[in-house]
What does this fold into?
Amino acid sequence: MGRRRKRKITPVRAKKGIPKVFRCPKCDSESLVATLTSTNENGDKEYTLKCGVCGFTQKVVVNKNQQAVDAYNKLVDIIAGLT
Ligand SMILES: [Zn+2]
It folds into this structure.
């Protein structure tokens, strides 16, 4: 009887380009999707954050080292500054 070697499960890193879902700062639904919409010559990334519930849409530009979550954090700051 051979012993089965347990397979190590390594956490899978989120693939680039897959939309991330965040909590909408407007309606508080977990349906704000961040999609990378463009990248400029400096490597800055423009994310479009759109809520599937209330229809809120905002474009946020982050630098090349930042990700969707950073765009979301920036959005939250923008919203906080507006209210
Ligand atoms: Zn919303």
Summary: The longest strand covers residues 32-39. Residues 20-82 form a domain with the N-terminal domain of TfIIb fold (CATH 2.20.25.190). The mean pLDDT is 88.
